[in-house]
Design a protein that fits this description.
Number of domains: 1
Order of helices and strands: EEEEHEEEH
CATH superfamily: Nucleic acid-binding proteins
CATH architecture: Beta Barrel
Structural class: mainly beta
Shape: globular
CATH topology: OB fold (Dihydrolipoamide Acetyltransferase, E2P)
């Protein structure tokens, strides 16, 4: 068995979207924008967008503490989601099934105090004082929509 683990750091392109299934499971979907290439001579290079799915308690925490524009670090398993478009063409979407989130520390809107974790030595590293939140148990076998019954309830809303 092989597994592809990925770690990305970027900003949320939109607010987290949470889905609560009839079985009691919770899923939160994030869209993370990552600037993977440096800009050259004022040329604007569009970011890469990654779809991130988070399940369970970690999904609830992401919904509670994250919002559009927040910077976040995500680690998890890369899953290729296969689907057909309206014309019947086969499509593949890479999805990160998150097992760990890292939030940068929040500081007051006032000036930084002397000796704070974000002193001049760590200004380049937004995650210097970050805390990582990890899923207590590994996610069950990946199935993006829960069970068929759960999907019917979520779509009917």
């Amino acid at each position: 068995m092989s597994m592809t683990n990925v770690t990305i750091v970027g900003n949320l392109a939109k607010a987290p979207e949470q889905i609560c299934f009839a079985s009691g499971r919770t899923k939160t979907v994030l869209v993370v924008a990552v600037n993977s290439q440096p800009q050259k001579d004022g040329e604007k290079i569009p970011p890469d967008y990654y779809r991130v799915e988070i399940w369970g308690k970690l999904a609830e925490l992401a919904q509670k503490y994250l919002n559009r524009g927040n910077q976040v670090g995500v680690s998890g398993k890369l899953v290729m989601e296969h689907w057909k478009d309206r014309d019947g063409n086969d499509k593949v979407t890479p999805v990160v099934s998150a097992t760990q989130l890292s939030f940068p520390p929040r500081y007051g809107s006032g000036s930084r105090s002397e000796g704070s974790p974000r002193s001049s030595a760590s200004d380049d590293d937004l995650f210097a004082g970050a805390r990582a939140i990890t899923v207590a148990e590994p996610p069950a076998d990946y199935f993006p929509y829960g069970s068929f019954v759960d999907t019917a309830v979520a779509v009917g809303r």
